[in-house]
Amino acid sequence: MCCVTVIQSQDGWGVNYDQTDVCAAKGSIVFITCDYTYPPGIDPSDIMDRFWFTKEKDGEPVDLKTDSEYSDRVRHTCYSDWKRCYLTITDVRESDSAEYKFRFRTNKPGEKYTGSPGVTLSVTDSGLQVQVRRLNSTWLELTCHSSCVLSDRAEYYWYKNEEIIKTGSSLLVSSGSTDRYSCYLRGSWDQRSPAVYGPQRPSVSVSPSAEMLEGGSVTLTCSADANPAASYTWYKEDGTSDPRLLSEEPQLVFSSIQSSDSGRYSCTAENQLGRKTSDFISIDVKYGPQRPSVSVSPSAEMLEGDSVTLTCSTDANPAASYTWYKEEGTSDP
């Protein structure tokens, strides 16, 4: 279906609206279009007035261009050769919600026609939104949702990235797709919904980015571009096939980081449309030497002339340097 045409006609007189409903957000631009027809015996030069209206005064329609509520916000364009007219309303307001009708008349008394019913414009605070519903592990259903109350003949168009691919209020897409999907309602050309898409590959930042000392505070932050917003999960590589789950928050906070926290970390970003995992980031916690231990080799009885090795060792990051002393019976070794 390429369009929704509403035909109001009688004895060769007629008005064909391209849509029955238009939904728009406050402050946007709205386009309403129609074709008009008249009996074959009438010459195009006989058409005197063509205008749009929502109100009547003393039984006669009031041209929108003369309505103070629409001052400087409406533009009416007609093409006689095509018998086609356009109404443009800029900076739409909630008070603009109404039924818009087109009227034309000739220079002969009584020859006039109004297309009724007309086109219903609904103006709301919010525009179109794409709702996502998972059908199974493979497929998702996207639904174009409007805050306006629309007839069942309202027509939606779907974009995949920047290309129109389908009409209808819903769309099936595969799970894990990296494409961006959005929709719009016919007649509201600048009212495309925000695009929905799965997460891009997450990035990880570390604060502070300087040297990490044991006992200090360190925060890892995972972020990814996604709509709907992604949820996050943190993992630590433990040398096994499956990393260990640590947290399900965007930030992984170490209020007093320890040497045991050194290692490789990654995060995932996930929404209804897909899931992505970051590259690993390495955390290297610096700490001073523990009390050194001294070992002797060989540990058996030492005889004069034998080879003996004393070894000093301690746990430290970075690695410690060592100094040996011998007590000489004085106050200072």
UniProtKB/TrEMBL annotation:
CDD domains: Ig (cd00096). Transmembrane segments: none annotated. Residues 117-183, 202-282, 292-333 form the Ig-like domain. Pfam families: Ig_3. PANTHER family: B-CELL RECEPTOR CD22-RELATED, VASCULAR CELL ADHESION MOLECULE 1. This is Ig-like domain-containing protein.
